Amino acid sequence: MPCEGIYTPCLLPIAEIVEETRDIKTFRIPRPEHFVYRPGQFAEIFVPGVGEAPFSISSSPTERTFLEFSIKRIGSVTQALHRLNPGDTVGLRGPYGNGFPVEELLGKHLLFVGGGIGLAPLRSLVNYVLSPEHRLSFGDVFILYGARTPQDLVFRWELERWRKREDLTLCLTVDEGNASWEGRVGLVPNVLREVFPFPCTGWVSIVCGPPIMIKFTIKALRELGFAPGDILTTLEMKMKCGLGKCGRCNIGPYYVCQDGPVFSYETLLEMPEEY
């Protein structure tokens, strides 16, 4: 079925499924020719007979042939997705949202801080920045990524690829290690204070992860001297329709699915205190 725009789902076959962790899988589907997006945007994935839900696009726009969605099994739609196999059909509509302000990041040093499945939207921007056509447009790249346990780290093959690059710094941490874990053990905000002793002039931080991690990571970034306008994060928990119609993601004057999901901390300070 051909795609007819961002309102009508197009039906596409699942090309490949990668089991990242016990409850996270990455789904690779063909990228329609019309599907032009920016890092940080999301799409609606439709499972026939079940429903649809919004998911961040975890692949980079520089990848022309396919799209990737890294999805945690948590609700009815995600459970249905996890039961599918390569060759099965899903619906796609989008892209939606504002994405990361790539033009404003040109020439900046970039500090990526991710937790758990929060690495998925960051991965899109990381691989965009690291691509041969864009790498020289950005400064230093520092990636701090954490998960609850070593088994909960996603994109392990990608992490190994990043580790081998000489043009970035990668730091991994887990809340609880095991006998085979040789990396850091500690919560992401605490490790951030230890491993990022640089002057923050010229740096922008992009944060994504569980809400509690984002809260305390932003606190750590502020202690390190980052200005509110130099901290970017995502709000995704309440998105549903992607069109600003259902009202579920409304926060004050904002609709997360349209005005976000990417916001600067400077903008978050203008929102109601409970957010």
Automatic annotation (TrEMBL):
Residue span(s) of domain FAD-binding FR-type: 7-102
Listed cofactors: [2Fe-2S] cluster
One Gene Ontology biological process: pyrimidine nucleotide biosynthetic process
Keyword Iron annotated: yes
Gene3D superfamilies (alphabetical): Nucleotide-binding domain of ferredoxin-NADP reductase (FNR) module (3.40.50.80), Translation factors (2.40.30.10)
InterPro entries according to UniProt: Cbr1-like_FAD-bd_dom, Cyt_c3_hydrogenase_gsu, Dihydroorotate_DH_Fe-S-bd, FAD-bd_FR_type, Flavoprot_Pyr_Nucl_cyt_Rdtase, FNR_nucleotide-bd, OxRdtase_FAD/NAD-bd, PyrK_electron_transfer
Listed CDD domains: sulfite_reductase_like
Keyword Metal-binding: yes
Sorted UniProt keywords: 2Fe-2S, Iron, Iron-sulfur, Metal-binding
UniProt GO molecular function: 2 iron, 2 sulfur cluster binding; flavin adenine dinucleotide binding; metal ion binding; oxidoreductase activity
Recorded coiled-coil stretches: none
Residues holding [2Fe-2S] cluster: 241, 246, 249, 257
Cofactor binding annotation: Binds 1 [2Fe-2S] cluster per subunit.
Entry superkingdom: Bacteria
Record-given protein name: Hydrogenase
